[in-house]
């Protein structure tokens, strides 16, 4: 049986990439419970390969203890595209299918999409505050220009 491919997601950070890996699901059941690869093999390892214009670089193998885990690849050059693929192996099973390549620019500071999200968020918050103030004004919480009835004075 082949292991994989794992599910890989990457997000850029400043001169680094945050890699989240989800183990492939197994199809083995025990007492109606779907077993994870950790349940089956106990000892699992993953290896990440990073690809850039400099070529491919395999990172050292690391042990896996959870179904979903994250790692950060640091000291990357800014303004350069990086691609990541991961493979999961077991001590009893060396047959593995690597994940598809996921690519991202290493430096997110220069990406205009983030600025648009920040501006849109600020506009939304401003509208929410303005709406809340309007409701409070209509409800008479402040700026009361009506005098109280004679019975309440």
From TrEMBL:
Q: Which GO terms describe its cellular component?
A: plasma membrane
Query: By its UniProt entry, which Pfam families does this protein fall under?
Result: Interfer-bind
Family matches, as InterPro entries: FN3_sf, Ig-like_fold, Interferon/interleukin_rcp_dom, Type-II_Cytokine-TF_Rcpt
* A GO molecular-function descriptor: interleukin-22 receptor activity
**Gene assigned in the entry:** Ifnar2
| Chain ranges of the Interferon/interleukin receptor domain | 3-104
| Protein name, UniProt field | INRA2 protein
């Amino acid at each position: 049986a082949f292991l994989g491919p794992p599910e890989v997601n990457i997000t850029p950070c400043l001169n680094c990439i945050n890699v989240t890996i989800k183990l492939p699901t197994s199809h083995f059941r025990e007492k109606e419970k779907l077993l994870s690869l950790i349940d089956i093999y106990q000892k699992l390892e993953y290896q990440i390969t990073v690809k850039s214009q400099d070529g491919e670089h395999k990172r050292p193998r690391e042990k896996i203890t959870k179904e979903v885990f994250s790692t950060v690849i640091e000291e990357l050059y800014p303004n350069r595209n990086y691609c990541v693929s991961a493979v999961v192996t077991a001590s009893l099973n060396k047959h593995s299918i690597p994940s598809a390549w996921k690519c991202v620019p290493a430096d997110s500071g220069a990406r205009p999409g983030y600025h648009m999200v920040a501006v849109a968020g600020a506009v939304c918050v401003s509208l929410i505050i303005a709406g809340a103030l309007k409701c409070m004004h209509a409800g008479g919480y402040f700026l009361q220009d009506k005098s109280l009835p004679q019975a309440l004075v």
